C-alpha cells in the first residue's frame, strides 16, 4: 500500500484517537478496498470488513491489513447452533482480528465466548440492527408494544451476564447501554453520520460527537468516508470531531 503524510492532529495521542474510528470497507472487491485504504492513508488505523467484502476475498485482505499493523473488525454477525458458532469463532480467532460480531442471542453469545478463549479476539454482540424500528420488530414477531430500546436493554443485560466483551448498538442507545454494561465493556456504534450527510438506510443515527458524548468507545463510519471525494480528509474530520468530544 502507498505511504501517506502523517495525520495533522493537534490533540494527543493521535493513534489512540484514530483507533476510535472504525472505517467500514463496504465495497465489492479487494481491489476497491485496497484502493480506499491507500487513499485514506494514516488517517485510518481500524477497518471493518462485512459480508460484502468478506465473501469476495476479504479474509485474506484482513490478514494483509493486520500484517501492516492495522486493526480489523470482522462484522459477520454469526448466529447458528452453539457448536457451529464456537468452532467458527475458534477459527476466526486465529486470523488475528480485533473484533468479531455475533447476534445477541444467549446460546450464540455463550458459544462465541467459549470459542475465543485463549485469544485476544473481542466478541461484540449486536443488539438490534440500526436499520430496524418498531414496525420491523412487530413484523418479525416480537411481542406487541416492544420497542427497539426495550430489546436493546434486554440483550445488553444478557450479553453482560455472559461475559461478552462489548455491544454493538445504535448511537442513540449508547447512554442506556453504558448504564447496563458498565465501564469495562466496549460500546461500538454504527449508523454514524457527520452533520450534512444523508441518512441512507439507517434510521437511528447521531453525529460522531454526540455518539462519543453518550458513551460510545468506537464509531463505525462507511459511506461518508469511502464515498467521499477525499476519503482521507473525511476521515480526518471525523477524528477531529471525536477528539473534540473527548476533551
Automatic annotation (TrEMBL):
Q: What is its EC number?
A: 4.1.1.23
Q: Does the keyword Lyase apply?
A: yes
Key words, A-Z = Decarboxylase, Lyase, Pyrimidine biosynthesis
Q: Which organism is it from?
A: Microvirga aerophila
Give the record's family classification.
Answer: Belongs to the OMP decarboxylase family. Type 1 subfamily.
The record, for InterPro entries, names:
Aldolase_TIM, OMPdecase, OMPdecase_AS, OMPdecase_bac, OMPdeCOase_dom, RibuloseP-bd_barrel
Provide the catalytic activity annotation.
Answer: orotidine 5'-phosphate + H(+) = UMP + CO2
Q: What protein is this chain from? A: Orotidine 5'-phosphate decarboxylase
Q: Which Gene3D superfamilies match?
A: Aldolase class I
User: A Pfam family matched by this chain, by name?
Assistant: OMPdecase
Amino acid at each position: 500500500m502507498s505511504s501517506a503524510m502523517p495525520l495533522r492532529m493537534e490533540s494527543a495521542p493521535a493513534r489512540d484517537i484514530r483507533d476510535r474510528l472504525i472505517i467500514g470497507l463496504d465495497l465489492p472487491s479487494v481491489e476497491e478496498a485496497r484502493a480506499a485504504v491507500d487513499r485514506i492513508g494514516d488517517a485510518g488505523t481500524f477497518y471493518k470488513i462485512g459480508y460484502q467484502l468478506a465473501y469476495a476475498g476479504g479474509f485474506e485482505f484482513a490478514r494483509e491489513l493486520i500484517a501492516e499493523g492495522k486493526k480489523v473488525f470482522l462484522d459477520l454477525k454469526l448466529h447458528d447452533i452453539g457448536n457451529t458458532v464456537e468452532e467458527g469463532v475458534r477459527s476466526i480467532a486465529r486470523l488475528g482480528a480485533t473484533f468479531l460480531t455475533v447476534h445477541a442471542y444467549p446460546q450464540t453469545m455463550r458459544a462465541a465466548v467459549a470459542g475465543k478463549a485463549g485469544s485476544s479476539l473481542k466478541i461484540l454482540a449486536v443488539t438490534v440492527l440500526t436499520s430496524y424500528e418498531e414496525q420491523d420488530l412487530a413484523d418479525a414477531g416480537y411481542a406487541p408494544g416492544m420497542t427497539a430500546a426495550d430489546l436493546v436493554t434486554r440483550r445488553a443485560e444478557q450479553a453482560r451476564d455472559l461475559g461478552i466483551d462489548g455491544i454493538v448498538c445504535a448511537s442513540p442507545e449508547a447512554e442506556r447501554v453504558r448504564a447496563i454494561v458498565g465501564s469495562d465493556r466496549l460500546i461500538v456504534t454504527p449508523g454514524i453520520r457527520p452533520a450534512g450527510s444523508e441518512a441512507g438506510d439507517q434510521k437511528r443515527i447521531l453525529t460522531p460527537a454526540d455518539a462519543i458524548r453518550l458513551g460510545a468507545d468506537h464509531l463505525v463510519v462507511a459511506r461518508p468516508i469511502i464515498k467521499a471525494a477525499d476519503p482521507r480528509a473525511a476521515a480526518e474530520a471525523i477524528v477531529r470531531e471525536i477528539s473534540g468530544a473527548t476533551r
